[in-house]
Amino acid sequence: MTEISTVSEKREERAAKRGASARALLRWLAMCVCCATSACALVPAASNSAAMTQRVIAHPDRMIVLAVANPPETLMLRAGSTSHGYGAASGYATGDGARANVTALAEQYGLREVSAWPIPSLNVDCAMLEIVGDAPRETVVAKLAADPRVNLAEPLQTYHTLGDAPPKPTAYADLQQGLREIGADAAQKLARGDEVRIAVIDTGVDTTHPELRDRIANTHNFVDDDWDQFNRDRHGTEVAGIIAADRGSAASDQASGIEGVAPRAKIIALKACWEQDGNGRSAVCHTFTLAEALQAALEDHAQIVNLSLGGPPDPLLSELVALLVKKGVVVVGAVQPSGDMNAFPVNVPGVIAVASAGKSGDAAIEADARVLYAPGKNVLTLTPGGHYDFQSGSSFATAYVSGTAALLVGLQPRFNSYKVAALLDQTSGPTQWHARVINVCRAMATLSRPCVEAGR
Description:
alpha/beta, Alpha-Beta Plaits, Rossmann fold, transmembrane, membrane
């Protein structure tokens, strides 16, 4: 009888354990359902980029950028996620404390949230806010900057791409003069930038162009959801064409195409700017879209970042660019026509500043040792729809240097901004057309690579 009782008790014990296990499993499944359906209320909804851009265009002088602390250790991740990634779809999201702070600050200072986005590389939550009343923006920014809950407060800054309306060339033989002038045609016999990842932070890029379509590694649009317009955008297509056009990938006759400086590099097309006019020669960006694009460049493992744009100094953007430089990314930026070296992005230490090369005999060109010079007038490049055109401006001189950097990084993967800048400055010199220009062939020869230019 005792033996029978013992067996019965063991059966009851096992049944109780099974019941407890089943209840635990149900609780765990319920939690999973919660996370899958609501992201446990920690992941904010993705912002409407198009609506945000329209608000900014309508009221640019009423916008403020705000950042509050958003430490990763306070966040709960989705099941199966990691702490990597950017934007609302990643594991790094806005914590309850950061969200509460932004909400409270907006209410206290009379602000309306336009968009918000966590920046994992800086451990902050960044919000763009619109001033609701008639308070002066400078006053509101000053009050926010003094609030202990605020890491950063600044006006939303505006930036412009740096292209000019070009003159037409007079001789067909000069169509790709710039490529030869910097020694890239000879250097391509030694290196072609194979698989070097270059982030072009600009307007959109024609990803269907015959000489670009095989060069696109990734795309992001931080302006709107109009991907047709993304492929019609002119300035970004022109910049990408100078960097990485590959006539060898075009189905048409190769003799009719053009070659970029690094025709085997990979382009990460990051749209942070939008066109202002019908011909696409002028485009504008702002702090928030540029910050998103810089974070994307970091997470897409860009080895080079091209910034063919310029504008006022900006604390948030400077911090992100400084982080890229610190991580060994080569960052190349355009000098404004005024030559202002306090403008973003060339004011950030480590950024390679590039200006259009001046005429031969212009002694003022060598006045600033921090600047590299490349062809920036009458440059042949790609335009949307499978076409070609000539462009001018420091935007395109910057693209020449980014392509050149890709050739060097392809040979020396550990080269950073400082090493690339020093080598290109050391090997720059006069040409038949300009007082001082970079020369990638001479740079390679310095690295004990046998590069010989035609006619030398």
